[in-house]
# Entry
Amino acid sequence: MTAATHSPLFPQVPETADAVLAGLDPEQREVALALHGPVCVLAGAGTGKTRAITHRIAYGVRAGILPPASVLAVTFTNRAAGEMRGRLRQLGAGGVQARTFHSAALRQLQYFWPKAVGGDLPRLLERKVQLVAEAAARCRVRLDRNELRDVTGEIEWAKVTQTVPGDYPAAVAKSQRDAPRDTAEIGQIYAMYEQLKRDRGVIDFEDVLLLTVGILQDRHDIADQIRRQYQHFVVDEYQDVSPLQQRLLDLWLGDRDNLCVVGDASQTIYSFTGATPDHLLNFRVRHPNATVVKLVRDYRSTPQVVHLANGLLSQARGRAAEHRLELISQRDPGPEPAYTEYADEPAEAEGTARRIRDLIASGVPAGEIAVLYRINAQSEVYEQALADAGVPYQLRGAERFFEREEVRKAGVALRGAARAGGNDALLDDTEDLPSQVRAVLSSNGWSPEPPAGSGAARDRWESLAALVRLSEDFARAKPGATLSDLVGELDERAAAQHAPTVQGVTLASLHAAKGLEWDAVFLVGLTEGMMPITYAKTDEQVEEERRLLYVGVTRAREHLSLSWALSRSPGGRASRRPTRFLKGLRPGSGKLGAAGGAGAGAGIERGSGAGRRKRRGPVLCRVCGATLTEAGEMKLMRCEDCPSDMDEALYERLREWRAEQARGLGQPAYCVFTDKTLMAIAEQVPGSDGELAAISGVGARKLDRFGADVLAICAGEDPAEGEETP
# Structure
């Protein structure tokens, strides 16, 4: 045995079955010894669930209880399956199959297809986007690249939830899912896509599971053969199982119950893909005699981090929250989580970059630090701040900001407009640099209001909105700057981000961070509207956002920083509020919850340039008194569902006036006022500058420009007869 064999990279294989159990805590040991009957392992973040289930399999194999070839362990990613295979080999159980659901199904499908159907298995479609595009064209529906990705995602969701094209609209309505286009239209594209696949003799990724299910249902002889082969099943991340995957698992099992599942309902964050924690939560209903083991000893995070994680879940609601696990840290105490409030987003990014630079200087490797945000469009300001601070970084789960297709196209459009100068009709009647950028990008898909729902369309809009905000900040910093100056600034920013990425700070969305961990984690942008995200409207959607933040918190081993900005840009109105999920947990946010919040020594720091304005209270519905969080509702000062007292005649007069103004300016109507702002004006009927200015969407510039006209219309007068704007 060489010295390398005893290194962490090449651990020594345990000599006996009992040696496999060495080093396990009591609960992990209980999992390892539960080798028969249904077993449900409820494993919290950082509690060593992979260690427990791999040692369970290895102990069973080494003790001669589980024949290696009879065990099938399934998980959800190739990375996780590879890690499981590696651990099993290190424990002397290399003959066990550890695969993803799709990999295991494809292997069976390839083997049994000639016997079940005859001939060769149809070719597997590597990427379905091209065929979806053709299906849309045949349905006479035009989709841009981002819409194409969204519709493709909808087809995938429909298939994993076992929804046929004709039932798609009803299924979307029942699930309260935000579809990217008309559901009947998507249903038609879905049906045509399936027809094209049949015509060309190809199958897609989801068909692998569907066809395997079909064969096992129809051919009992094949099902029996598979059941003789695999007699013991282990499923990791069971909270992420889709209805289709559960159906396949049921067919693999037959009438047997040698199943071990591992999961945590509090880490369910992929419901938009069809995943559901219901199978985990219902396990003991389906298997009343199941052995249930809870893993709550957290070996990853310090007591301070665990304290906050427990506090987050203590406020959760819904069925998943009823099964939450109270983690107990096994590590020595560390620093308290840091809460920092900044005046604006650039200050937040710069402050984060400074803290990261200090951590690296103190000895924390850059590769052990992560900045996590809700959506990928938030990355740009952090990419720039880290580049300016000389800190290397790498992006995970997203293209670099300036390499995104919509950003590249926007750059081309801006460069063309700058070159054309006054000869570009798009720039007619634009007043300043930001209005020029908005005018150019409006032809690329930007609009003042974001698109409904999530997905690629929203991500694309967020990228373009980031460019609009950049132009506003640039113009404020350099009065008189031209469109050519801005294009030069964009080129410099793109060049500055060509930093080494091999050993750098990780920039990632919260979804992309699942399953990973770092010594130091910075959770940024924690404001209402971003966490929870604006389009999370139902109670269950809001609770999934809370679980997403919980996943982010539990990625940190020792250092945890949580921050938010009161306004988007420097000098902006400090109207934002920290996420509701930290209420009662962060200092100064009310009474601490029973499960605890920040430690006594913690406090909210004011980041560089933090605003000193008086904090505004929550915005309440003027009809029912409920707290408003959605931007459109806050503008109307009422819940969307509450009755409106809008003066319809006044609203129509305002719309006619807006149309005239827009024609005179040569801009879209929404550039004057959005529909929601006009509705708010027609509902509240302001009688003074102060009352009008208090309506969201009426800023100082628009008040100066349009205020006299609007107040005249509200007073029943002709705008021409109102007082001149000073």
